[in-house]
């Protein structure tokens, strides 16, 4: 396969290997953290809302500046630093638990720190990937990267369910700490990629940070997709702030069963990552994006529908929900990221990525807090989940009615990266 050979020659699969290690472990933390809150710390709806907000609150504080930092340093160093920092932060959870010092507030602090370093990591990754593989291979590279995520989605929840059942949720997080450390070591083999000099070398920090946001808001296509993502993420954060509490307390599912259901989402991710590039070639970008945004709303409704229907039916409905939800999200990510990287100049990708996350992730703390308040108050868990799913369904209107609706091929923007500007396997290394 020429595409596989071309990607291999860039050194891309070293990046893919490091990501597979890291993302498999991250799935364990994503799975285990809310279980720590529910099963170990006896958290209620409001505490779960706070926990959901903590993971994305860093975006409000560092969403714009993260892209500037990513653009200002050698990208491989940034990726390695973020992995090492996340490993250290996660190690604090089992240490505090073993010394009987773990509290909800300590868990919130660790979750915030991991979210902050993940934000910086993602900004650096988005800027590095097109430099590595070039514009023509972006769809295929993103499909491989989402496949890496899907491997974690499949292996992570099942492994996490077993580890939580046997060791307890706090000790299970150690596996993620080790995976981030291993990923930092794996990334040492990547080609070096120094930052591209900005157009204004002496621009001030705030001006550099706001430049990405201005570029994003000037482009009607990128602006509409960023707002669609913000709409989608607000209601996603509402839904998942209460998801684990609902399925554990109301549907009475064990950690092991939750792991099985999470693996169903991983299968959906594998299918989505394999199909995304083919979908864009066959149907373009607009209509598939509309379906990808709306489908999780339908999938989300299956979870409250499972209440009172028995364990077997609940497993089927929640498993189908996870499968369909993650499949749609992976297709969405591949298509949206390819559009952004085709439009944005290479030296601006880090800060534009930070700006997109500022707009689309910055709403997540508010969604999680609203879910916590509604779940603990007037609506209750089940109705809050239904409202969240309805909001997700409506997010499909943004790409359907906006500029992306008629997009058949990648736009010819300024984000093309010449082959001479790409680091190769034989490029200079430390």
List the helices and strands and how they pair.
Blueprint: H1 2-10, H2 12-40, H3 45-72, H4 75-98, H5 104-133, H6 138-167, H7 169-186, H8 205-218, H9 220-250, H10 255-283, H11 286-305, H12 311-343, H13 349-361, H14 364-376, H15 380-394, H16 397-401
Percent of residues in helices comes to: over 70%
Please state the structural category.
Answer: mainly alpha
Give the radius of gyration.
21 Å
Strand content: under 5%
Shape: globular
Mean pLDDT reading:
80
Number of β-strand runs: 0
Secondary-structure element pattern, one letter each: HHHHHHHHHHHHHHHH
Keywords:
430 residues; 16 helices; 0% strand
Tell me what you see in this structure.
The chain has 430 residues and is an all-alpha fold. It contains 16 helices and no strands. Helices cover 79% and strands 0% of the residues. Helix 6 (138-167) packs antiparallel against helix 10 (255-283), helix 9 runs antiparallel to helix 15 (380-394) and helix 11 runs antiparallel to helix 15 (380-394).
């Amino acid at each position: 396969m020429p595409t596989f050979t071309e990607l291999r020659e860039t050194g891309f699969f070293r990046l893919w290997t490091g990501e597979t290690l890291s993302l498999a472990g991250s799935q364990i933390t994503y799975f285990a953290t809310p279980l720590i809150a529910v099963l170990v710390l006896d958290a209620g709806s409001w505490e779960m809302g706070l926990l959901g907000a903590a993971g994305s609150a860093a975006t409000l504080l560092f969403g714009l500046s993260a892209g500037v930092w990513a653009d200002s340093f050698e990208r491989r160093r940034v990726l390695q630093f973020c992995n090492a920092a996340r490993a250290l932060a996660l190690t604090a959870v089992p240490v505090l638990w073993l010394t009987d010092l773990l509290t909800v507030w300590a868990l919130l602090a660790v979750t915030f720190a991991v979210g902050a370093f993940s934000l910086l990591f993602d900004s650096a990754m988005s800027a590095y990937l097109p430099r590595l593989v070039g514009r023509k291979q972006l769809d295929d590279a993103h499909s491989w990267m989402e496949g890496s995520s899907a491997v974690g989605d499949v292996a992570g929840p099942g492994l996490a369910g077993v580890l939580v059942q046997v060791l307890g949720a706090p000790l299970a997080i150690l596996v993620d700490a080790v995976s981030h450390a291993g990923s930092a070591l794996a990334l040492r083999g990547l080609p070096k990629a120094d930052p591209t000099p900005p157009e204004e070398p002496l621009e001030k920090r705030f001006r550099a940070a706001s430049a990405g946001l201005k570029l994003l808001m000037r482009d009607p296509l990128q602006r509409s997709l960023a707002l669609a993502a913000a709409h989608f993420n607000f209601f996603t954060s509402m839904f998942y702030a209460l998801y684990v509490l609902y399925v554990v307390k109301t549907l009475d599912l064990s950690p092991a069963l939750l792991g099985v259901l999470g693996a169903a989402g991983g299968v959906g991710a594998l299918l989505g990552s394999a199909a995304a590039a083919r979908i864009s070639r066959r149907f373009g970008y607009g209509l598939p994006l509309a379906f990808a945004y709306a489908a999780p709303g339908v999938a989300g409704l299956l979870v409250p529908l499972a209440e009172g229907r028995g364990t077997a039916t609940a497993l089927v409905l929640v498993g189908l929900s996870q499968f369909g939800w993650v499949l749609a999200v992976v297709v969405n990510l591949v298509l949206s990221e390819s559009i952004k990287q085709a439009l944005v100049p290479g030296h601006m990708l880090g800060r534009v990525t930070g700006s997109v996350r500022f707009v689309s992730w910055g709403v997540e703390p508010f969604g999680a807090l609203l879910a916590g308040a509604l779940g603990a108050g007037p609506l209750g868990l089940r109705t809050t989940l239904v409202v969240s799913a309805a909001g997700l369904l409506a997010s499909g209107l943004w790409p359907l009615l906006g500029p992306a609706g008629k997009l058949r091929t990648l736009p010819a923007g300024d984000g093309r990266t010449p082959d001479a500007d790409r680091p190769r396997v034989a490029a200079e290394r430390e």
